[in-house]
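Q: Can someone sanity-check these two? First one:
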Amino acid sequence: MYGARPGRTFAPMTRALFREQVVIALRSIRGTLLRTVLTVAIIALGIMALISMTTATSSLEANVKNQFSSFGTQTLTLRQREEAGRTGGRRVRTGEPITYRQAAEFAADPPEGLEVGRSVFGSFNETVAGKTERTDPNVQVLGIDANYLSVSGFSVGSGRNFTPSEVNDVLPLALLGVEVVEELFAPWEDPVGAEIRIRNRPFTVVGVMAPRGRAFGMSQDNQVLLTLGSVRLLYADNSRSYTVACKVEDPSQLEEGAAAAIGRMRVLRGDRAGEAASFDLAMSSGMVDTLKQATDGITLAATVIGIITLFGAGIGLMNIMLVSVAERTREIGVRKALGATPRAIRAQFLIEVVLIGQIGGLTGIVLGILTGNLVAAYLETPFVMPWGWMALGLALSLVTSVASGYYPARQASRLDPIKALGRE
């Protein structure tokens, strides 16, 4: 049999021997079920920590990319400077607001190649009243001009946008988010043309925004858009800052457009040459990159935690296999006496340890995907399947099991059959 040519009998015998060794390995695993379960649990915990955190961060990253996809790589935003570190041991306060006049002058004479839209924040906790219904006091109110929607990636689902003359004349008009519509109107009612009231002031609905979903746990559909002048009348506040959004025609001109926008706004705000700008510039692509850097840090932490946990699992798995070798000394002696080679004995124990490792890895992957996507569901971000990390998890569990099982398998293969048979 062993002298036959490899092409005819050796391969089938190898498969048969492999199946037999798998059956013996499963029988051995069932015989030490408690120790096996504990080892599988430790391996699964390490893989779950890795997969769950990478799944959650991948979902968050996918959500942010979806949210900013409408902006593309063609937009930039000028806004009030926020905290920028410390000076003399004290934290720097937010910068001076961008005034209505500065935003209006920028929009009236923008740098060449830029489309400009203006907006101003009104309230995060407003109550909106319809004919018979009222919303909860959690509606966001934003003031915009006629260009804001096209520059910022929003769109009107039904009705129409504001016109430039309506914005200039401060007409009491409103665009509603779909959640506000659902609270104020019955399904068969058409909100376009209806009247709503904010702070007891009437506004005519001219359009309903297309659904936007949620971003960072906050709804983008629970809002009312008014004209810039209407927000100024509703929320008189000299410290209120305006945001200027700019869009370039060609993404390759974004850096050039950003430089031109900064230069124009510096002139309008009277920033001195050589000093830092008194406002912030943000680009949508930069926001995605910033978040990716943050999620990469979380992913690295998850990987380190997972590897450390797997290292501990490997030690436990090695101990289990050493105990298994000691308990099965007579079995090893009998098998060697019947002709089993050291290679076959070594393979037997390696198969057992790999099975334990892969069971732990698969369990950890399933639990990790469930846990990570439960977090994603809580944050209302998309369901993801991290195929690359799943493959890495299986590879790590395989490496852990082989590395921890090789020494016990080697010890088993080197046992003297005569001494092994003589041991009680």
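And here is the second, same format, sequence then tokens:
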Amino acid sequence: MKYKNVLLTGSSGKLGTAIKQSGHFSGLLSPKREIMDITKPKTISDFFDKNNFDAVIHCAALARMKECQKDPSRAILVNTIGTANLAAGTIKKENSRGKSIRFIHISTDAVYGGKKGNYSENDATMPYNSYGWTKFGAECAVNALSNFCIIRTSFFAPENLNFTQSATDAYSSKVHINYLAKAIATMLDSDFVGTINIGSQRKSDYNRYKAFKPLLKPCKFKDILQSAGIPLAKDASMDCSLWHKIESKNK
């Protein structure tokens, strides 16, 4: 890999754990929150002063939509302000070392409207809930960096499908968590700067999960919406043609 020393935030989360276990990365620094808390700038500057790294993979976030909707101030603190703190710290370290730092930011398909589907990177952003808005705010901070890649995505882990039914009329481009870990490794090594959608083909949630959970029962989107009690996307599918071009070149 081009970058041998990589700082990983959110290493105890599902995606962070998958990244550590993937074997695609070497020299990962994965500080616990007690050591580096992105909501506390001093802990960032202290860690940055004591450690050297060439790249950042930023996975830390308050990712549960219901939790973000219930406590938007906490979501803003972690997702938006926390990312801004990390970006500011990265710029400061770049200035001190005289060299850019590669910054991979894991965003979400929830920054799009979630109604029409097939969203491209050039489509207007119109988040449909608090989670999406706080992640969009995070993207704004990351755009201040010089060597960044914002990955808009949505993923699932087959062992964590803790529900009994799924909608046949709600669509997404979700990817397997292990696929995303490998995709992140590809974008880390890439010279691409900007925002990219990483996902799979458009498929209903029911058809996607059924392959991993045979006893899953079908339902309608309105049933999921009613039980969730928060705004959700009916069609969050994305146009991932840019990603697939990069992916094919790296096979």
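A (reply): Looked at the second one. The first helix runs from residue 14 to 22. The radius of gyration is 18 Å.
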